[in-house]
Amino acid sequence: MADIASQLRTARTDAGIDIATAEYATKIRSKYLRALESGDWAALPEETSAKSFLRTYADYLGLDGRAMVEVFKAGQVSVGDPAIYAPKAPIADPRRGRSWRTWVVVALVLVLIVGLFLIGTNSDAAQAEALVQASALGAAL
After folding, report:
1. CATH H-level, domain 2-74: superfamily
2. pLDDT tens, 115-128?
3. Domain assignments of the chain as residue spans, ordered by start
4. What is the pTM assigned to this prediction?
5. Which terminus of the chain, N or C, has fewer Cβ atoms within 10 Å?
């Protein structure tokens, strides 16, 4: 695995490229480029990112990135701190916890609206019936 690191460092220095230029060209942070060149695999993020960084950087330097990744995978290197990448508990969706409450409030509002409608309809009917009776009484007299 040190062979990968030395190949990267040698290719960069032979091409006369500094770390800042390589960082700008590859969009890989300089601390990760330095870790690749020094063989400090534990300083790299998760394995997928490390392989991607290695392939991108090697291709940028004119090396065979795919072959280097294969050598990297064959070396069974421990990359990054596994504790950092432990899956986190899923974040509860705040709308999900309130969904039943929302339906209860909607149902109560609908019941209130229907109740007020029925009260208004019944009072209008009662007034209309009273007027009919009053007019019937007035006509009978």
Report:
1. lambda repressor-like DNA-binding domains (1.10.260.40)
2. 888 887 776 666 66
3. 2-74, 97-140
4. 0.54
5. C
